[in-house]
What we know:
The protein has one domain (14-135). It is 84% helix and 0% strand. The protein contains seven helices and no strands. The longest helix is centred in the first third of the chain and has 25 residues, at 12-36. It starts with a helix and ends with a helix. The mean pLDDT is 93.
Amino acid sequence: xxxxxxxxxxxxxxxxxxxxxxxxxxxxxxxxxxxxxxxxxxxxxxxxxxxxxxxxxxxxxxxxxxxxxxxxxxxxxxxxxxxxxxxxxxxxxxxxxxxxxxxxxxxxxxxxxxxxxxxxxxxxxxxxxxxxxxxxx
Length: 137
């Protein structure tokens, strides 16, 4: 029984640095995303703005998908850091790409229009999936 437990925990030495590095990346992404968008989603979320919550949630999920693939594809922490940084930049671009297709996106999210938040989330998740697929090698 003790041997089985020890065997099961051998992966913990890899789990801990990858998990905390990914969690740090996710927090930094949220901070960068809310700083770069014309509106402050986090402030709007605290004011119960559903459109902002949907948009920000989609952005975070989109980047988490990228992080998952970066972890799966990386050969070490440096490799993971490189691919998570590439994914970080591309996911930040997702909002600006969405603005090309959804007129007055920022204003509509600020006004709480759920459709704008849903489209922003959908683009973020779709770009996250494409971003992750391109990381796989």
